[in-house]
Write a structure and sequence with these properties.
By secondary structure, the protein is α/β, with parallel strands linked by helices. The protein has one domain: 3-Layer(aba) Sandwich (Rossmann fold), CATH 3.40.50.620. The protein is built from twelve helices and nine strands. Strands 5-4-3-6-7 form a five-stranded parallel β-sheet, with helices on both faces. α2 crosses α9, α7 crosses α10 and α7 packs across α11. The protein is globular. The termini are far apart.
């Protein structure tokens, strides 16, 4: 079995095509696809200051590496890294250590924001305080909030994340199963429906690349050889949907691409529909933008206070 293009031993068989590529050809393919996604969906503009949300994992380090290279070609771009320290013992300190070394080596400014400093508790402490709650239901809300707050503090015009095609396919199906079309309208290579100065627009340069491809790229480029997963991830609804989609993909190759490509066809209609209908509101407790009287972050803060008062 040889590389389709150069007859060298392949390192990967591309999902959805059965094409075999060697190390050199795969890296070229991967990087070309990322930069094509950036151009097609206008993810990066002149004089952008892009905050890259990084954890030290394969996806975020790949995005940080590629955008940093992109900024070296486009001299009017500014790239900074934002990391969120949730306070997950035995996990986050390891990925942050990898991230710190990478940023120091590549002269990238790294800014770390923690749950402990912002909310008074680490995630581990929150889970011990609020009983019977799914970890991801808390962590996802607080992480998104803190990334947006951090990006605003750094005066970033865009917030780049490492979401890949697998992540997007999972999100699409989760929202379908929950009958939450409004949330699907917010997805896409550039997220959101409403443009407002309270939100830093989010971009996903890895949008059209699978998790397998990202993992292979990160390993071949020496970005990381540590592919550990958050210990709380297996308890999530996303993990169930992920396993179901992976099972379908194994039996029917191309399933993930079909889910995302089908969504991209209807995405413009969804965004138009909910942009026309939705009015932005602000939390009456913290004044951050939300869709309810009290945002989910403040609801979690209130839960923590209530739980402490009853113990």
């Amino acid at each position: 079995m040889v590389c389709k293009k150069c007859e060298v031993e392949p390192v990967i068989i591309l999902p959805n095509s059965n094409i075999k590529l060697c190390r050199s050809c795969f890296i070229k393919y991967f990087e070309k696809k990322v930069f094509k996604t950036i151009a097609k969906y206008n993810l990066v503009e002149e004089k952008d200051k892009i905050a890259v949300g990084v954890s030290g994992g394969k996806d975020s380090l790949s995005v940080l590496s590629l955008l940093n290279r992109f900024s070296q070609k486009k001299r009017n771009l500014d790239i900074v890294a934002i990391a969120i320290d949730e306070g997950i013992h035995g996990y986050r300190e390891k990925t942050l250590d990898t991230l710190k070394k990478y940023c120091e080596k590549n002269n990238i400014d790294l800014h770390i924001f923690s749950y402990k400093n912002e909310f008074g508790y680490s995630l581990d402490e929150m889970l011990r305080t609020i009983k019977g709650v799914n970890p991801c239901s808390i962590c996802g809300v607080l992480r998104r909030y803190l990334l947006n707050v951090g990006a605003k503090k750094l005066n970033a015009s865009k917030l780049a994340t490492g979401h890949n095609l697998d992540d997007e396919a999972q999100s699409i199906m989760m929202n379908q199963f929950r009958n939450n079309v409004k949330l699907n309208a917010r997805l896409g290579p550039k997220t959101g429906v409403i443009e407002d100065e309270s939100f830093v627009p989010r971009i996903k340069p890895l949008y059209l690349l699978t998790e397998k491809e990202v993992m292979t790229y990160a390993y071949l480029k020496g970005l990381t050889d540590n592919f550990i997963e958050c210990p709380n991830a297996e308890d999530s609804y996303r993990a169930q949907v992920r396993d179901w989609i992976n099972m379908l993909e194994e039996k029917n190759p191309g399933t993930k691409h079909s889910i995302v490509n089908s969504y991209l066809e209807i995405m413009p209609m969804l965004k138009k529909q909910f942009k026309d209908k939705k009015e932005l509101r602000y939390c009456k407790q913290c004044n951050e933008p939300c869709s309810m009287e009290v945002c989910k972050v403040c609801q979690i803060r209130n839960q923590l206070k209530t739980s402490l008062n009853t113990t």
